[in-house]
Model the fold of this input.
Amino acid sequence: MFRIIIIEGNIKLREQMKRILISKLPLLSVAEASDEKETFLDIVEKRPDLVLIDIRLPDENGLNLTKKIKMQYPFIPIVINTNNDSPEYRSEAALAGADYFLSKKSNTVNELVSLIKSIYFKTFADTNQRSPAEDGPNLSKGLLHIPGSAGGR
Done:
């Protein structure tokens, strides 16, 4: 089971994303969070293999939350998924520690599914079939890629 957390302030969008991802990736376990407190509770309880996060959250900036997650859990890949698709946000996402950046405006559900599949296969190939949440810091190698980011990584 590949575990992800969707951190999205818009509950309808979050639930829709969860339904779509589970329908397209049946072996996916999806937790949901809308703020920092829920996020860290879910990380501790669910031990995700991937975090999908929006920049705009009700009580927190997703980029700041990305930094906090990466400080405590550097081995968990983070995908920024946002409407704020500008070179500045891509650059800030990279500086915050995000591993990938997707635009809600220009990327399709199929592209999100493809990215998750890619991360899944890369993760389990790198960890010899162990969950990245159980494997620790070695996961970060090879996953530092933000397509189109200013200056790259």
